Amino acid sequence: MHSSLRISELLERIFSHFDHRLATDNGTLAALARTCTAFHDIAVDTLWRHQDTIINLISCMPGDLWETVAEDGWSGRKMVRLGRPIIVSDWDRLLKYSSRVRSLTCTGSSFQPDLSEIFDAIHLHFPENI
Question: Do 7 and 35 contact (CB within 8 A), yes or no?
Fold first, then answer.
């Protein structure tokens, strides 16, 4: 690898040109993060920097923690709720990646599940020592 690719400021500049709203760009950043240790942290920081939904963060928690159920009615929307009590170790991955988030946009899109129970659960169970 060329020595210029070991300069973190240069990598940050290059990786900043990827658009977080494009799945292909996110896939490329994920591949770069796995390519070599020199790329890993900067690519992961870039992947997590801008989040358009809290679902990506919630997805860092164990899969058995949440369950998705259909809401009553014709809307076809889904609701996400706790499937079991939250334990301290459930926070490990979420906290690891949430520290990389610099902007979070949460909109009430009809295409996203209802997360109101999730916000309540996170508020009630968030570790106090953090």
Answer: no
Model confidence pTM above 0.70: yes
C-alpha 129, offset from chain centre: 22
Task: Report phi then psi at 117, rounded to 5.
Answer: -70, -30
- What is the predicted pLDDT for the residue at 81? 80
CA dihedral 22, 10, 44, 38 (to 10 degrees): 130
Q: Among residues 49, 28, 50, which one has the least CA distance to residue 39?
A: 28
Over residues 103-107, the mean pLDDT reads 82
Closest by alpha carbon to 103, among 41, 53, 30, 29? 53
